[in-house]
Structure formats: structure tokens, C-alpha cells
């Protein structure tokens, strides 16, 4: 079977009797206020009819842009990161860009290898949830290689860079204050043993909220590798058995919460009668769980919008070293059955 010949802009120009420049403006969404609506519609209708597809390789050579943004998440299968990715994809597409997704698995070497791969493919920008101990590499990308870098979910304090993050400190305080208002007297924090800014800010928010409420913090910090494992659950169960007075828990991530809920079930702990629970990051299963689990939810649509908006602004001002984009967005506390302490309500 004879292969269908690719339609070029030159072919469209010849068929419609419209200049190549005009057609190029229309294809690249630059026709507004330059070309009449009638001509735009005529070209767009013909493009749809013949199934025209732009030659991306030629465009890249001509403009130096691939119209591609890489989103490097910690784990793209995590519902939080995948929800953000989906929202970003829609916004980017409307602005003429495509998103490539990948996971670092919190592995520094893997992240470096992926960045090198995408640099060779000349992507336009990176949105990165950096793994641990990756600050030096990020700084090099920004200052030495002049890449457009937007950090997401975590940031560094020692260097000036672009980021979109949650207000983790005040989010943790909000969650703890809800536990306090529900009647909790001994509130524990279960987080990650990590240098991530999001983790340290959540821990500090917890400590600040309980400083006038209980004599000392009660915290368990687990290694990243144990978050979803039986080993992590066993550590959590030992922690609960040691701190028998704990009647409220703030989990720093949804992964920690899921493993923790399994542990509480193994220990036959009744939620919310014996202890109340709130976790960062919502998931469908938290609403479906019995009892439903209260969450500090991240504003996914707003985050996705700011990430793409900021990245596009940085691309437009790529040679302006003073252009910095930083957003800290508030979380939303969703109160469900897990922090209604009936034991106190009855008193």
C-alpha cells in the first residue's frame, strides 16, 4: 500500500492561495488581531480536513524550542502527583505545550540521568520534585546550564530559585489545632526522616501548634524506604504501644497514613473513640474508609495553574536573570469522622 504523503505548509498555501507566512501565523496561534476570522477559519477547516501535522523537528531547528516541558515527580503513580500532572497537561496543551512525565523514586542518580536524557532532547523547561541531596545539581542547572527550572512540593532555603509549594507550616498548625479542638490531649506526629523542606516545615508547624498544649512533642520519623512497607508498619505499631496516652495523630503524607491505618487496625485501635486522625494529602480511599479520614488537602488545580503559568513566564523571560517565580499556597482542611472524638463529646 502506498504511504500517504505528508501535507506541508507549502501545499496548503498553494491549495488555498494564502501566503505561507499567514498560514504559519494561524498554525502557531499568532493570528489574533493580525488576520481576519474568515481567513483563520478557512485555513483551520482545511488543516482539519487534510489532517495536517506540523513538522516538529523543523520547528525545533527554526525556533530552538520543542514546546515540551518535563515533569519529574517523586512517584508519578502517587494520586497527588498524578492529579497535578493531569491538571498541568490540560493547561499546557491550551498554551501549545506538551508534558512528559517521569519518576525519580527519590533517587539522586536516577534524577540526574533523566535530566541528562531530556537535555539531549532539548526540552524547554523542567518542573522537578527534587530527590534528597540534589540542591547542588539544581543550582548547576540554573546557573551554569541556563535551564528553566521550577521546583514543586519542596524548596531550598540557601539558594534563590523558582518554586510552587504548599504552606506546610500553617497547614500542619491548622490540622493540629483541629485535633486539639476535638479534645485530643496527647497528639503525635508521624513523618519522614528527611531533609525535604515540606517535611521539616510540617514538623515545625506541628511543634509550634502543640507547644502550649502538651509538655513535649511525640514524633516518629520513618525512612523514606519504609513508608509503604511492613517494616514501617511494625515501627509505627511499636511507637503506638510505647506512647499509650496518644489520642491524636497527624500523618505527614498519605503513604504514611495508609500504612498507619493498617497498623491501628492490627492494634484494634478504635477511630475516633480512642484516637483521632488527620493526614496530609487527600485520596479517595480516605473518604471511603470507615470512619472517613480527615485530611489537609493540597489545592491541586491552583498548584497546576501556578506551575504552568510560572514556567511559561520564565520561558518568555529566559535571559532575564532577575526573573523569579515563587508561590506558597494554603491547604484546605477537610474534616471527616476520624477527628470527631466521641469520648470527649460525651463528657
TrEMBL record:
Residues 7-63 form the HTH lacI-type domain. The keyword Nucleus does not apply. Transmembrane segments: none annotated. Keywords: DNA-binding, Transcription, Transcription regulation. One of its GO terms (molecular function) is DNA-binding transcription factor activity. InterPro entries: HTH_LacI, LacI/GalR-like_sensor, Lambda_DNA-bd_dom_sf, Peripla_BP_I. This is LacI family transcriptional regulator.
Amino acid at each position: 500500500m502506498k504511504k500517504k504523503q505528508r501535507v506541508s505548509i507549502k501545499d496548503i498555501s498553494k491549495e488555498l492561495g494564502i501566503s505561507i507566512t499567514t498560514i504559519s501565523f494561524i498554525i502557531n496561534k499568532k493570528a489574533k488581531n493580525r488576520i481576519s476570522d474568515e481567513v483563520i477559519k478557512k485555513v483551520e477547516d482545511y488543516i482539519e480536513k487534510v489532517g495536517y501535522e506540523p513538522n516538529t523537528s523543523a520547528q525545533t531547528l527554526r525556533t530552538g524550542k520543542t514546546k515540551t516541558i518535563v515533569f519529574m515527580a517523586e512517584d508519578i503513580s502517587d494520586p497527588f502527583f498524578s492529579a497535578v500532572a493531569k491538571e498541568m497537561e490540560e493547561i499546557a496543551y491550551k498554551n501549545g505545550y506538551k508534558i512528559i512525565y517521569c519518576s525519580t523514586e527519590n533517587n539522586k542518580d536516577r534524577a540526574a540521568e533523566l535530566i541528562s536524557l531530556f537535555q539531549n532532547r532539548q526540552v524547554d523547561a523542567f518542573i522537578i520534585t527534587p530527590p534528597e541531596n540534589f540542591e547542588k545539581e539544581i543550582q548547576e542547572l540554573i546557573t551554569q546550564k541556563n535551564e528553566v527550572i521550577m521546583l514543586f512540593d519542596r524548596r531550598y532555603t540557601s539558594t534563590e530559585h523558582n518554586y510552587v509549594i504548599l504552606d506546610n507550616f500553617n497547614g500542619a498548625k491548622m490540622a493540629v489545632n483541629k485535633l486539639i479542638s476535638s479534645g485530643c490531649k496527647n497528639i503525635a506526629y508521624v513523618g519522614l526522616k528527611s531533609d525535604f523542606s515540606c517535611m521539616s516545615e510540617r514538623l515545625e508547624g506541628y511543634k509550634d501548634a502543640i507547644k502550649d498544649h502538651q509538655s513535649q512533642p511525640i514524633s516518629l520519623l520513618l525512612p523514606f524506604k519504609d513508608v509503604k512497607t511492613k517494616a514501617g508498619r511494625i515501627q509505627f505499631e511499636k511507637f503506638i504501644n510505647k506512647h499509650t496516652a496518644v489520642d491524636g495523630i497527624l500523618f505527614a503524607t498519605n503513604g504514611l497514613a495508609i500504612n498507619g491505618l493498617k497498623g491501628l487496625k492490627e492494634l484494634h485501635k478504635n477511630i475516633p473513640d480512642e484516637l483521632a486522625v488527620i493526614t496530609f494529602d487527600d485520596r479517595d480511599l480516605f473518604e471511603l474508609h470507615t470512619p472517613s479520614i480527615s485530611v489537609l488537602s493540597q489545592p491541586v488545580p491552583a498548584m497546576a495553574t501556578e506551575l504552568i503559568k510560572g514556567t511559561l513566564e520564565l520561558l518568555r523571560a529566559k535571559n532575564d536573570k532577575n526573573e523569579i517565580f515563587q508561590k506558597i499556597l494554603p491547604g484546605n482542611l477537610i474534616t471527616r469522622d476520624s477527628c470527631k472524638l466521641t469520648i470527649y463529646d460525651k463528657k
